[in-house]
């Protein structure tokens, strides 16, 4: 089961994945509205808190949930410098962010995260941030992509640590997945790999990613 909660003033998508037994869960990118996220997690044993990247609108409630659930936090440590970076003055206050702890586990390409009867594969997709990752369930055909790619767009690269050419290489990884793979984005609606290959202007070449 996949639950997507759109939270906070930036309408960030927090993703809760429940394993096939219906007993264990992971939460990905808990950015805001911690009490609401916690309420959704209560029926399950939360075995991990995961982050696609370190921007505060995606990790703003990690500290709150870690304290409440005593679950380990997984993130690529290349993004550790971002978890206390306000991006602009007052950003953390605007989204109600809690202090984010350092990750307990450093995510790397090919890592497998098991939760109950389900699992996720880590795909490193830097460019939006240096430590950006996606979480791929190959068996069920979905990808939790954070801000690497959006429906018809891509993650911006003008924030600290962003790099457009690195992001382009990460996009090539994503579009190499099967066309029917469902992409759950960090903001906005879901899409599929096939749809983005056909119509995303940053992938088809109609827009220059260096200008983003």
UniProtKB/TrEMBL annotation:
Q: Has the keyword Translocase been applied to this entry?
A: no
Which Pfam families would you find in this protein's record?
A: Lactamase_B
Provide the coiled-coil residue spans.
none
Entry keyword set: Hydrolase, Metal-binding, Zinc
UniProt KW Protease keyword: no
> Which InterPro entries does the record associate with it?
MBL_Glyoxalase_II, Metallo-B-lactamas, RibonucZ/Hydroxyglut_hydro
Names of the cofactor(s): Zn(2+)
Which residue numbers delimit the Metallo-beta-lactamase domain?
Answer: 12-187
Q: Name one GO molecular function term.
A: hydrolase activity
Q: What is this protein called?
A: Beta-lactamase domain protein
Organism, per UniProt?
A: Persephonella marina (strain DSM 14350 / EX-H1)
């Amino acid at each position: 089961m996949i639950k997507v909660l759109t939270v906070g003033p930036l309408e960030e998508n927090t993703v809760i994945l429940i394993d096939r037994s219906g007993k264990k869960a992971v939460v990905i990118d808990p950015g805001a509205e911690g009490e609401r996220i916690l309420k959704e997690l209560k029926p399950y044993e939360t075995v991990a808190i995961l982050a696609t990247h370190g921007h505060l609108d995606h990790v703003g409630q990690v500290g709150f949930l870690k304290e409440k659930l005593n679950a380990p936090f997984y993130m690529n440590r290349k993004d550790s410098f971002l978890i206390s970076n306000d991006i602009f003055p007052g950003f953390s206050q605007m989204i109600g962010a809690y202090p984010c702890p350092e990750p307990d586990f450093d995510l790397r390409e090919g890592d497998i995260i098991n939760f109950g009867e389900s699992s996720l594969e880590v795909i490193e997709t830097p460019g939006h941030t240096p430590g950006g990752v996606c979480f791929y369930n190959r068996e069920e055909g979905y990808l939790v992509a954070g801000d690497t790619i959006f429906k018809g767009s891509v993650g911006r690269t003008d924030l600290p640590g962003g790099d457009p050419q690195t992001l382009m290489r990460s996009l090539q990884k994503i579009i190499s997945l099967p066309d029917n793979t469902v992409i759950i984005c960090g903001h906005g609606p879901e899409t599929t790999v096939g749809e983005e290959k056909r119509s995303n202007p940053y992938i088809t070449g109609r827009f220059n990613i260096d200008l983003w």
